[in-house]
Amino acid sequence: MNRIIVKGTNWIGDVCLSLPAVYALRHMYPNAVIDIALKRPLGGVLSGLDVIDGVVEYSPGFQGERELVSRLRRDRYDLGVIFPRSLHAAALIFFARARRRLGYAADMRSLLLTDRVERTKEVTSRHQSEYYRHLVSTLGDPGEPVIPRLSVSDREREEAKALLYKWGWRGRRLIGVNPGAAYGDAKRWYTDRFAQAADIITEKLDAQAIVFGGPLEVDVAEEVSRYMKRAPVIAAGRTTIRQLLALIDSTDLFITNDTGPMHLAAALNVPLVAVFGSTNSTTTSPMAETGRFALVRHEVECSPCLERSCPLKHHRCMELVEVGDVVGAALSLVT
């Protein structure tokens, strides 16, 4: 196997969760060229990662995908590994003419695959990193599981520090706060509680909070800021992916819902507290070393429901998470 193309996933968190499978491919094919195809701007997550040889970034939409297929055809891949479960993702690798095409046999795409793997209930109930590793393990021995690590350059760290000063950082320790969740409000702990927790933690640690979020989460970040008594830095909606990575890397602690930045913090080895409610901590908990993260959740009979909004209208899975739960978990990691 000389050339391998991986069709990557479409969300930041899933890109991180699929990396152990990429390490498994490298273990099996140490001398192969391994590239990964990702929608813009997700390729920035993997900049500098030595387990892959290249990132093929493409723009969403017909024209961007047409250009992607043309490029992949020119590079003549021996194997295409398809992480997304969609028919669309399989079609891209099929039309790119990868000689072998490996993917889960689901969503009416079996005819597009040469190597089909059954997507059983047992497989889908595993941690998502193992779900992807299981797929590639059908090719051979995947080796020992690897906790992925992302990298930030010294230059990026200096640029992040300059941004922090520009936005009102006072040179203290930084506590990251990530109150949004793109999937829906069922995954979100409450903004007033995030604010209270951040105030208590920053006071105890003589630190300052930095509030993160994507372009669609600026309102959530600003709401947290309004509730806070100790003025935070607001980074929501103001960063590229590489700046986001560098800023998370600058924090001493990261407090978050179950979101993509949670997985970035884990991959940067930043101590983190993850609040889980409607989502499944068995399948999407952060990949972090013992003692580097704390998971805060309360057992309720309707969780995980995996819904965007609470179908029962009580949101008890998050209602039961108290400020003290998060503060206690956070301080146990950094003091």
Task: Outline the structure in words.
This protein is of the alpha/beta class. The longest helix has 17 residues. The chain is globular and about 60 Å long. 45% of the residues are buried. A 6-stranded parallel β-sheet has the order 3-2-1-4-5-6, with helices on both faces.
Q: Quick summary of this structure?
A:
The protein has 13 helices and 12 strands. It is α/β, with parallel strands linked by helices and 335 residues long. Helix 10 (260-267) links the parallel strand 10 and strand 11.
Q: Name the beta content range.
A: 15-25%
Q: Number of helical runs?
A: 13
Could you tell me how far the N terminus lies from the C terminus, measured between alpha carbons in angstroms?
49 Å
Structural class: alpha/beta
Task: Tally the beta strands.
Answer: 12
Largest β sheet strand count, sense and barrel closure:
6 strands, parallel
Sequence of strands across the biggest β-sheet: 3-2-1-4-5-6
Which shape, going by the Cα principal axes?
Answer: globular
Helix fraction by DSSP (H/I, runs of at least 4): 25-40%
- The secondary-structure element order is EHEEHEHEEHHHEHEHEHEHEHEHH
The gyration radius over C-alpha positions equals: 20 Å
The overall average pLDDT, rounded, is 94
Question: Unreliable stretches, pLDDT < 50, 5 or more residues?
Answer: none
